[in-house]
Amino acid sequence: MNKVILIGRLTKDPELRQIPTGASCTTFTVAINRTYASRDGERAADFIPVITWNKSAENCAKYLTKGSQVGVSGRLQTRSYTANDGSRRIITEVVADEVEFLTPKSERMSQQTTQRSSYQSNNYSNNDADPFFGVPVDGFEEIDDLDVPF
Hints:
Layout: E1 4-10, E2 15-18, E3 24-33, E4 45-53, H1 54-63, E5 69-82, E6 88-101, H2 105-121
């Protein structure tokens, strides 16, 4: 069995690229604090590289930024390549099957405000535009997370 589950924060913005077959691929690194402190009281962190594919990759590149909190589940993979200096390098990374965006609602709201002003500065002035996706909501209204029955 090969299953990995992580929760942490992105160390920088995700990097989206297309591979020669046309598939989308996004890579990012998740920082995860260790549960114990060293003798001097400091907690170290692990920095885990993650790779996502296709629609998940596109969504991660579009909606995640440095500092975003994510939950990742997938599998551990190792691969090797020859570096420019001729040495053999081995990479261990998590290939994500699922990525959950865990950034708190208050942080999402501040990101939405920034995106709304960007949306409006591009000469789109629909007052009924969703601030996160920047598209008209056509009669839909936002509901509080506490009102959802599941």
